[in-house]
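Hi F.,

I've been meaning to write this up properly since the lab meeting, where we talked about keeping a consistent format for the predictions we share between groups. The idea is simple: the sequence comes first, exactly as it goes in, then the structure tokens exactly as they come out, then a line or two of notes. No screenshots and no reformatting. I'm using this chain as the first example so we have something concrete to point to.
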Amino acid sequence: MLVNEEKLNALLGRLFGDLSAGYGGVMVSLGHKLGLYRVMAGAGPLSSAELANRSGCGERYVREWLNSQVAGGYVDYHPNSGTYELTPEQAAILAEETSPVFLPHAWQVVASMWADEQKSLTAFRTGKGVSWGEHDERLFCGVAAFFRNSYSGSLVKEWLPALTDVTEKLATGARVADVGCGHGHSTVLMAKAYPNSRFWGFDVHEDSVAAARKVAQEAGVDDRVTFEVAKADGYPQNRYDLICFFDCLHDMGRPVDAARHAANSMADDGTLMLVEPYSGDRLEENINPIGRLYYAASTTLCCAHAISEKGTHVLGAQAGPRQLEQVLRSAGLGSVRRAAQTPFNLIIEARR
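Output, unedited:
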């Protein structure tokens, strides 16, 4: 078999780029946990010795770490002064923990995937699933923090207003269920924005529910927010005005049952808001870095959990709008529309 040298070298270049990025993720995690980015943010040019002194770290380690950051384009270098600087754009992504584009926590998900490699190997070889609660604990914290920042920039300002008559109900006082709430950041964001409304968060993972209760308490909204351990088709049917599924329906082995339970739990004029990873309906539409990320996470996390439930579907994170609409209509929701979208998410509204 003849090898095309040009194609071989191009592929090698891509693989080495990926390998470099993998190493770089470890450096980002170290920089975040050691507070190196936070110290650099807004400080202007610093020498490695100055950064080491301000962060309480060893200078030689800091210098090598800084050089890795410069090589990756995450930190700027000034050759004349031998100093390093974190620009405002770099700080927004690497240092400002409330920024919608803050990303260091995302590498905790990658770390959990490596830690669970043996479970994934076994799942591939046996066809069996791996439930959400079986994964390395870094998965739960990484996912929660990653989505918290993403939602903080869009949920209240853009997504809820894109729904029909929902913000008016929330302002005067509505009943809201957040299904698959995880650590509860989405629930708390809505509760802080709409103090006249009442919120319930449901999740099957007990540790996440415990974490969500702490999040609500720290935010001062625990008097209006309740978190409970419950399945997506087993929480109380309290005639909610709004039921939300944030990046979780595709993980469920019985998504039609979950959507049907939501439909039966809504008020007559209630709304279901489905937030899902952005995707086209065909593989050809998803051949890009975001699609690659979602397919990879879906392989070891989303599909693995759906398979573990031994249900009716294994949608995966790139299910696409057509499949999602089919699920919702099969559940008895007659009105389905795409209310909004971002490069990372589809926001779908469904009503009876």
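Notes:
DSSP finds 14 helices and nine strands in the chain.
The chain has a mean pLDDT of 97.

If this format works for you, I'll send the rest the same way.

G.
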